[in-house]
Amino acid sequence: MPEPTGTARAKDDLRRRARGLCEYCRTPERFATHLFSTEHVVPVSAGGSPDDPENLALACQGCNNHKYTKIRGVDPVTGVPAPLFHPRSQRWRDHFVWSADFTEILGVTPTGRASVATLRLNREGLVNLRRALYREGAHPPHED
């Protein structure tokens, strides 16, 4: 049986699996001003498991707050609803790329574009942080 999401070991396992990055905006937790959250990819209110590691993601407070209980967003290119990025069943690089200067995340699929818009993956503070980390050689993170 999986450990409850609140245990120290479960949180450590989640951080290791996420390589210390928000699984949506790719911000390194070590540079965040707030602790990251254990986020339910499929919200419990929508039938997602509260403790299954396959339903948990490491998320910065901004992404967690903007996602809240959403599982879909609107693709701004087509205007059609699309599922949000699911870090347990999808690969980040299949849905997103970095802008030429590595400061913005660009969605390349309906899921990617809907996720960028809904979770506001290019919030001003994140863009500024990415710019500074890039200058220091600490951005972008390596994608598997």
Strand and helix layout:
Blueprint: H1 8-17, E1 37-40, E2 56-59, H2 61-67, E3 72-74, E4 81-83, H3 92-95, E5 96-98, E6 105-107, H4 110-119, H5 124-135
Antiparallel strand pairs: 1-2, 3-4, 5-6
Low-confidence stretches: none
Contiguous helical run count:
5
How large is the radius of gyration? Answer: 15 Å
Strands side by side in the biggest sheet? 1-2
Indicate how many domains the architecture comprises. Answer: 1
How many strand elements? 6
Strand share of the residues? 5-15%
What percentage of residues falls in helices of 4 or more residues?
Answer: 25-40%
Overall residue-averaged pLDDT value: 94
Using the alpha-carbon principal axes, give the shape: globular
Which sheet architecture does the biggest sheet show?
Answer: 2 strands, antiparallel
Write the element-wise H/E pattern from the N-terminal end onward: HEEHEEHEEHH
First and last CA, distance: 28 Å
SS-based class: alpha+beta
